């Protein structure tokens, strides 16, 4: 319990530091959202409107600590400001609109890639020197070595354009009204299969090789040899003794990957014209949309910290040595 409270305290401090940096960096940058928006009109709007826009965007000349308190108060109430890129849409509404697409596509793809890669790595290490060990690592490494942009374009051209097996763009059929209806869900799944396939194909090799190498090292440990000498079932040795310990280093990488899921997959969204938060982040950078940048970075920071906290809990469950050291 003491360890859990200590870790919660650490992540709360890290969250406060992330929020503080998220507040300071845009305010140290030159310009402000109102001036950026005024520049878009190229003199077609009266200069007197600048003050009104500054009020609308919350630009103030008050002391920095006063602005910081106001910023924290706005965060508590879920107010992330107005987006310049999608003006006058609030940042919170913009993120709420785009992030479900990203979580469903990139999140599910990451889980599938990690699960398949870990399972393949475990089986290949257990049967090292066999056909699986000589076939799968070179093949999957070849696909991961191809730049993702080209891999996605090849998959789009062959599977989408030539064979016409999947839609070539968008997140759903434009003839379907977005809702929780069965036609829309089926259309969204159909449009997500090809982008998800390319993400899994390009990332599975890393999980597989990492698990294989750790599994090979773990299989030479004394406790695994002792379990084999005692005549324990092969499946129990492979899963409970070898794989359970070999997977620990991959847990941290998987947690970080899940945390960065909310950052989107920019290349995927560009190639497949797929809706998501990655393209919104790119537009925010290009348009100096500080409010949208702050909102997205805050979501990423919270997701990464939350994923790492879950990884710590998982370590505590999987590794008895951690529990013994912390008691």
TrEMBL record:
Pfam families: BPD_transp_1
Bilayer topology: Multi-pass membrane protein
GO CC annotation: plasma membrane
Protein name: ABC transporter permease
Coiled-coil region(s): none
Keyword Transport: yes
Keywords: Membrane, Transmembrane, Transmembrane helix, Transport
Record's subcellular location: Cell membrane; Membrane
Protein family per UniProt: Belongs to the binding-protein-dependent transport system permease family.
Entry's Gene Ontology BP terms: transmembrane transport
Superkingdom of origin organism: Bacteria
Residues that span the membrane, as ranges: 9-29, 101-126, 138-163, 183-209, 246-272, 292-318
Record-annotated ABC transmembrane type-1 domain positions: 99-311
